[in-house]
Specification:
single chain, about 400 residues, alpha+beta, five-stranded antiparallel sheet, 9 helices, 21 strands
Length: about 400
């Protein structure tokens, strides 16, 4: 589904050109191999935190930090759409994501979908019956501590997606990695990287309505802090083929973020929220999966974007192209804003694992589809993990 409208500000570090490209479209390019210590050694510049090693790079590419903070990140000239692996710059602008901006970043664009999806293309099972999304009990952190919302800016304004904290094999128990959809970080073949990407775990933990959130304090909507993406990576296939209706890039519509706390902390994201899910890159064939549970923050009517919901269903198959991987498809009435939310099923060891993420769905909500994670997804994941080893 298409991302929903949020608000934020960040410039990123450089990304790795492996099988995927890295972070977003800012006012210039990043460069070099950032390490965890490089990111941690940020120094404030009028409220903007930038790793010291990137400052010269940013200047080389004409990034005026004062103008960026003053709103230059809102300028979206065609030439400013940074696309490639080493284009991602995303400096932290403290307090940019305040409670009001997060609350108001909920008006969804049209869901990513195509009325002809799957027709006569490979193996596609019958359309599943709709499964009504169920509101999660509160506080959300008790049942889905790994779930949260991603906020970012694009040419059309502020948008939101959903996301999941995942384990990092390079840092056992101390992961700073987040899984979401590719279209939540990059616009695909017609655009580039989004800006000001930030993750808020257990957003609106108490499950208040939009009206109830007016005047809320920041720790009420972001109880575990705001975590800025200092690195992002998605698949080459999404960048080359993805589009506003998913396009041929949909089977590769996944992304991995590496994040850092806005306010600074010695604790990792995993330690802060107390949990992270393993990612399963060798899940059983679709027909062998007993059930998948999808979690997200749907924002299109009848939802308000502020509360978390879930759907659970036995998946079917959706094939967009005989040459591309078959996608998982489940019945679910969640709408835009749920994009990027984690799909959880039993992994090879029988324990819960992330096996997909929400990608596309019909204009009239009734089902969702997500990519089946394979070699391409594993390459993206491992590239981000190695970058911060």
């Amino acid at each position: 589904m298409r991302p929903n409208r949020p608000v934020t500000a960040v410039l990123c570090a450089a990304a790795l050109a492996l099988t995927a490209a890295a972070c977003g479209p800012g006012g210039g390019e990043g460069g070099g191999d950032a390490k965890p210590t490089d990111v941690a050694a940020s120094t404030p510049t009028d409220g903007i935190k930038i790793p010291d090693q990137l400052k010269d790079k940013l200047k080389q590419h004409g990034v005026d930090l004062d103008k960026w903070k003053g709103g230059a990140w809102k300028n979206w000239k065609k030439d400013d759409w940074l696309r490639e692996a080493n284009d991602f710059i995303n400096p932290i602008i403290e307090d940019l994501w305040d409670p009001d901006r997060m609350r108001d970043a909920q008006r969804p664009d049209k869901p990513v979908t195509d009325p002809d999806l799957g027709k006569d293309q490979g193996v596609t099972d019958p359309t599943p019956a709709p499964v009504n999304a169920k509101a999660l009990g509160t506080p959300y952190h008790q049942s889905v501590p790994e779930a949260g919302k991603v906020f970012f800016d694009g040419p059309e304004g502020s948008m939101v997606c959903s996301a999941t904290v995942v384990k990092d094999p390079a840092h056992p128990g101390r992961s700073n990695m987040v899984w979401t959809a590719g279209h939540c970080v990059h616009a695909g073949k017609a655009g580039g990287w989004y800006r000001n990407i930030a993750f808020v775990p257990s957003y609106n933990n108490a499950g208040r309505t939009q009206a109830q959130l007016k005047g809320a304090k920041r720790d009420e909507v972001a109880p575990y802090g705001v975590w800025w993406s200092d690195w992002a990576q998605t698949s080459d296939q999404w960048i080359a083929q993805g589009g506003p209706t998913g396009g041929q890039g949909a089977p590769y519509d996944f992304a991995v973020l590496h994040v850092t706390p806005e306010k600074g902390s010695s604790k990792s994201l995993e330690e802060t929220v107390g949990s992270a899910l393993p990612v399963e890159f060798n899940a059983p064939a679709v027909q062998k999966v007993a059930s998948i549970t999808a979690t997200g923050y749907p924002a299109a009517a009848p939802f308000d974007g502020q509360r978390a919901f879930q759907c659970a269903d036995k998946p079917g198959r959706l094939s967009l192209n005989g040459n591309d991987p078959v996608m998982y498809r489940i019945g679910c009435t969640m709408t835009g804003g749920s994009s990027g939310g984690g799909w959880v099923a039993a992994g090879a060891d029988g324990k819960p694992a992330l096996v997909s993420n929400t990608s596309i769905g019909p204009a009239k909500a009734g089902w969702l589809a997500g990519p089946r994670l394979g070699p391409e997804a594993k390459a993206v994941f491992e590239a981000v993990s190695r970058k911060f080893k």
